Amino acid sequence: GVAGYFLSAPQGSMEVQRLEVYFDTVWRTMLTLFMSMTGGVDWREAFDALETVHWFYAALFVLFIACSALAVLNIITSIFVTDAIEVAQKDLDFRMRGELENSRKVVEELTKIFAQMDEAGHGMVTSDILVKCLDASEVRAQFALLGLEITDAVSFFRVLDVDAGGYVDISEFVMGCLRLKGHAHLVDLEVSILEIKRMLQTAVIEQRSLATQLSTVRG
């Protein structure tokens, strides 16, 4: 390699002098490689010196520079990616805490509204009570502040009354409002789905009744 070239080339030639600057000893060779990576020396100068020995050594030098640059780039990229992930995680935690705090406040407000409607203290609100309370603009304003624009009180009650018991307790009321909060347009969709389910239930009951009657007639 370079050592053989030193022995065979004429001493004092321009090529030998240029090689001695960068590759005279193992220590100087390592220093040249390091400076080529860090900008201490223009790696093109070291490349030109190696090219006088053989193109293969020059190609190896270029490969070393390319691999070193990629390694440094990967390290820098990993640092930025790690920092970005940490920042995103902190932001997610912050937003989750904010959402939890907001949900807690909403639950408190809904509990107060339910207590206002349940004047008798029975722990339940019927459709008539809800409709009557929603006739008051103050109550509608309270719902609006929570992101619930209620246009049809009866439909709203039917959405809340998931078990079709004719009344809603505090749990049904709060959970139903949370489910619809911020998506008031979903009330109509919920009503439609509820109507379809009830129609299917009615159809099944009528079919069973008809089947029973036919069995009786045939018997």
Tell me what the structure shows.
The chain is mostly helical and 219 residues long. It has three domains: 2-53, no CATH class; 100-191, Recoverin, domain 1 (Orthogonal Bundle), CATH 1.10.238.10; 192-219. 78% of the residues lie in helices and 3% in strands. It is built from ten helices and two strands, in the order H-H-H-H-H-E-H-H-H-E-H-H. Strands 1-2 form a two-stranded antiparallel ribbon. Residues 183-187 have low confidence and may be disordered.
CATH class of the largest domain: Mainly Alpha
- The count of β-strands is 2
* Strand order, sheet with most strands: 1-2
Question: What structural class do helix, strand and pairing data support?
Answer: mainly alpha
> Major sheet: size, sense and barrel closure?
2 strands, antiparallel
Mean pLDDT: 77
CATH-assigned homologous superfamily of the largest domain: EF-hand
- Whole-angstrom Rg: 40 Å
Identify the overall geometry.
elongated
Order of helices and strands, N to C? HHHHHEHHHEHH
At the fold tier of CATH, the topology name of the largest domain is Recoverin, domain 1
Low-confidence segments: 183-187
Summary, kept brief:
This protein has three domains: 2-53, no CATH class; 100-191, EF-hand (Recoverin, domain 1); 192-219. The chain is 78% helix and 3% strand. It contains ten helices and two strands.
